């Protein structure tokens, strides 16, 4: 087992200190070690924060046989956790008046003349950011067009493509978040990667996070359900809204600390807009694909919100999975506690258990 103490001077709250928190350290270490032993996945990393203090622990190996334990600087592709970052990009544009939550997104998506409608409902920015657009989960194959190209997206964004009227239901949609990235790029007048850098990564000091391929000995190699190493995919700009970010546990601690800074002045309005419950589950039809990591009670901008239950406080969370890596981030916004975990094998039972373990750890560190 390797223990890494984090001292994140660049992102600490003004006047705060990262003193040792024995309970945080003990609980995070025990949780990560037991999870690793019980699941048998090649590698596990767990990061936990509480009241401005933090700890990261790694178990196993970043790649089978290399002897390198995961640590605070292990490079990890976090897949759909990217959606929470895209939600924050949108929140920053709402906060400064560039767009409104209820603006139609279609006029800002340059690769089509218009987005599909249904029953008189147009797709708004808030619909895309809460999985309420009615768009399908993944692109349908298009003869003669490579997947994720402009032509493939354009062929999927046609009349009749929606599963339900926008705003009336929720169904998990990678397409929706990719289109959201395109719409935000169009509204801001800059490439989406540059927009992400300017609106989120630079202001939050997340210097190790970006759209790049995780390489090197201290990078998670992902494995499929049969234990075979999976190839690393080159990032595709049309997928930047839904996925493709690579980061480190150190940066994820910084991301958690920023999201938990309830009364911080910098970015306060964007943070509030990002976390707000913009769509409540009650009365929606359908509701599909949002309960794998815990019951979705409401949607923030890319965030899944779970109302308090038993001894567990309200939690805001997001999971991701790509190229043999599962990851999960969750925090209790009023309790100052958050957890990030990642494993490097497509073990679906372990992936779901990881979310349960993280949520239970939050409950233990921040009971109601």
Identify the CATH architecture of the largest domain.
3-Layer(aba) Sandwich
Rounded to an integer in angstroms, the radius of gyration calculated over CA atoms is 20 Å
- Structural class by SSE content: alpha+beta
Uncertain parts: 1-19
Strand content: 15-25%
How many strands?
13
Q: What is the CATH level 1 assignment of the largest domain?
A: Alpha Beta
Question: Residue-averaged pLDDT, rounded?
Answer: 93
Please state how the strands of the largest beta sheet are arranged side by side. 1-3-2-13-12-11-10-9-7
How would a textbook summarize the main sheet?
A: 9 strands, antiparallel
Provide a count of the helices: 9
CATH-defined superfamily of the largest domain: DD-peptidase/beta-lactamase superfamily
Tally of individual domains: 2
Show the helix and strand layout:
Blueprint: E1 2-4, H1 22-39, E2 43-50, E3 53-60, E4 76-77, H2 82-95, H3 125-129, H4 150-156, E5 170-171, H5 174-188, H6 192-204, E6 246-247, H7 249-260, H8 268-275, E7 279-280, E8 287-288, E9 298-299, E10 304-306, E11 315-322, E12 325-332, E13 337-343, H9 348-365
Parallel strand pairs: 5-8
Antiparallel strand pairs: 1-3, 2-3, 2-13, 4-6, 7-9, 9-10, 10-11, 11-12, 12-13
Helix pairs in contact: 1-9, 2-5, 2-6, 2-8
